[in-house]
Specification:
Blueprint (H helix, E strand, L loop, with lengths): L7 E6 L2 E7 L5 E7 L7 E4 L2 H10 L6
Antiparallel strand pairs: 1-2, 2-3, 3-4
Length: 63
């Protein structure tokens, strides 16, 4: 069973939600996830700034 991830510092930019979490090695990471149905885009980043930039430039291909 995979470990449960608890997100902190949630932020939403357009349809993309950004959250900060600690990975299994104890490092702080940021995840950006598109909340549009059917988009399925997500990515992990080492800084909040990078996640925010990805959220601002993300374009959903779902119509």
């Amino acid at each position: 069973m995979p470990a449960r991830i608890n997100f902190r510092s949630l932020m939403k930019i357009g349809p993309v939600q950004i959250g900060t979490y600690r990975d299994r090695h104890g490092r702080t990471k940021d995840a950006a996830v598109c909340t549009t149905d059917g988009c399925r885009w997500s990515s992990d980043y080492t800084s909040s700034t990078a996640a925010q930039l990805a959220a601002r430039t993300h374009r959903c291909r779902v119509s």
